[in-house]
Design goal:
3 domains, alpha+beta, 376 residues, globular, 10 helices, Sulfite Reductase Hemoprotein, domain 1
Length: 376
Amino acid sequence: MTRPVAKGWCPGAYRPMMSGDGLVVRVRPIMARVTADQALGLCNLSVKFGSGLIDLTSRANLQIRGVREEDHEALLQELNALDLLPDDPALEARRNILIAPDWRDGDVTKRLAKELYARLAELPELPAKFGFAVDTGDAPAFHENSADIRIERSGKNIVVRADGCAKGRAVAEAETISAAIEMAHWFAETGGATSRRMAQHVKTTPLPADWQTASTVLDGSMPEVGQTELGTYYGAPFGQIESTQLSELVKTSGCRALRVTPWRLFMTEDAAPVKSTAFVTDPDDPLLNVDACPGAPLCTSSTVETREIAKKLAASTNARLHVSGCSKGCARPRKSEMTLVGHDGRFDLVKNGLPWDEPSLTGLSPKDLLDRIGEF
């Protein structure tokens, strides 16, 4: 089966998306970081203009939920006052960039990311979900995350790689962003807009041979909950945060900033761990092994509530679990050992597959799932 057509764009600040609880307004943090003052301001705006809920997305962005249409312009003005809208609307929409969260001042990741931000205007017209990953730590960490052009490190080399290709193009640091922009132009000029994503496009349109000569390391891993040299990681169950709880954590920890990731983890920069019952602080917490979209009633595509059943099931299985409100699989558009897909108010079960694959069981109620999870 093929994946159902999802929304044609990701919500942004200037172009929000209507959901079941109101507008979803996305903020794309520069360098995957907001200062403590910006974080507190964002929390206040979530309460003032929205539902008080903030999403931490699989693209390492922050979303204010539940905004009324008549309040959108006022929210934009206050986001701008917080310096969270640093460029014009056209460039803001292009700022789909994943950045390895363990960057340090002066390192190659920060240098390359800053140059890419500065040169966004040189990109061609691209599909709305087209994105980049600046993944130049010791080993790439974003190999399971969505990106179309990947800037990675293999030993001492930097490699620019098209998603869907095993190998990429080795470049010097000074040439890296120019090579990435060149690859974006190749995608646009060879009809990539039709397939929308690089991995699909390269299946039918071969890249130039000299762009597929350098191997990259694919055994990197995401950070774990807990303290690191740069700060402390906390988990946000299902990527949803209550703004009052986040505000309290920022104040209590005394952090300089928050760094955001695409793994439903965020870091309190330069801060030791503090006790929290609102966020995941145990690296063995089963909630870290579960993905679940907002579900009904927050999403109008869903006919089932997702997150409460996901919480109940998390402790009952060791499998990687994905609870999807519909077959689009927005929370995890990749294979899971066990995927529950909402359909007409019940769930279908897909084993070791994608949400849009043929299910092995259909029409399961929440009670069926709770009673029989050990059988699946």
